[in-house]
Amino acid sequence: MKIETLRWINNKLEMIDQRILPAAFEYVSYDSAAAVAEGIRSMVVRGAPAIGVAAAYGVALEALRLQDKSAADFKAGMEAGISVLLQSRPTAVNLFWALQRMRTVLEGVATQTPQQIAQRLLAEAHEVLAEDIRINKAMGANGAALLKDGARVLTHCNAGALATAGWGTALGVIRSAVEAGKKISVIADETRPFLQGARLTAWEMVQENIPVTLITDNMAGHMMARGEVDAVVVGTDRVAANGDVANKIGTYMVAVLAQWHNIPFYVACPISTIDMNIATGADIPIEERSVEEVKGFRDYHWAAEGVTIRNPAFDVTPAELVTGLITERGVVLKPDVQSIRKLMGK
Ligand code: MRU
To answer: Are the beta carbons of 158 and 196 closer than 8 angstroms?
Structure first.
């Protein structure tokens, strides 16, 4: 089964509802920037590249929705729509990258009619989606070469087809290695509290018959100590100019463990996820999500009533702990300021 995380049907955007997977597989339909922003905020769609693609379609949908307005109303409406999308989630830089790309297109065709602008923005959103899949395949090929035949690969969160327009970043590396004929098995961290590992990574791997073993997050050290992990591959939401990596909460813990056990720790990272405007990981905005996610699941609360709860959704892994950044332009071993500047052509 080909996983189409986002698809364009009858002039609407449809996205797989990732809040209810794997119990149910359903698409939700979107027809405005505000609706897409809400879909991103509530995690119908999640994962840095997928958020970027959704935001690009959000801009196109808003243009289609407003295309019969006067030029002035259209312009004001587009600004308002982009502003709502900008506020949907703070950590994944792909959101801001995609919105900037759409804004540049919008400004470039500002003198055209709203109908023409809407068509141009829609074409750009389609291109953002197609490009994401191409990039993931290139990254996958670059990363697959790093995994030996028979490798047992631990991953955290979901950096798969569901987190992108298709194929995936970290899981894309695994898919590409499998496609190249290597026998790869996956160890999926459950990824508390939103359970992207248990619900989404496990589901994706099961769909494709790639052997996968689910563990709770606190089992990773034990598995490494027993020699049951050959490599770690994760995705990322934002990489700072010095190579520090923001990713799902718990990634830092895995990176420290990997270093201690001498296990390579790779980060699959499309170029659009590198933020040259942020010097170090300390400046990356970290989303704090609702405490309800930690308190229990849906209506059931296991935490003691009255306890203080924190829910930072991401953490930062220092560049020193990263064995290599796997990008569509190649692998950057031991990333630092110089190697990232070179990668970005700066
Ligand atoms: O909160 P989420 O589910 O959006 O977090 C997703 C992650 O942390 C992924 O690892 C990251 O976005 C990379 S996805 C290719």
So the answer is: yes
Question: CATH assignment of 140-344, given 3.30.70.20, 3.40.1280.10, 3.40.50.1110, 3.40.50.10470?
Answer: 3.40.50.10470
pLDDT, tens digit, for every residue of 134-179?
A: 999 999 999 999 999 999 999 999 999 999 999 999 999 999 999 9
Q: Which atom in ligand 1 lies closest to the alpha carbon of residue 168?
A: 15
Q: How far is the CA of 75 from the centre of ligand 1 (A)?
A: 32
The pLDDT tens digits for 269-322 are 999 999 999 999 999 999 999 999 999 988 999 999 999 999 999 999 999 999
Active site residues: 237
In CATH, the number for domain 6-136 is 1.20.120.420
Domain ranges in the chain? 6-136, 140-344
Residue 330 φ then ψ, to 5° = 130, 180
| pTM to 2 decimal places | 0.97
Classify strands 27-30 and 152-155 as parallel, antiparallel or unpaired. Answer: unpaired
Q: Is the CB of 164 under 6 A from ligand 1?
A: yes
Q: Is the minimum distance from the CB of 94 to ligand 1 under 6 angstroms?
A: no
Ligand 1 pocket, 46 CB below 6 A? yes
Any atom of ligand 1 within 6 Å of the Cβ of 48: yes
**Helices 71-86 and 93-108: angle between axes, nearest 10 degrees:** 170
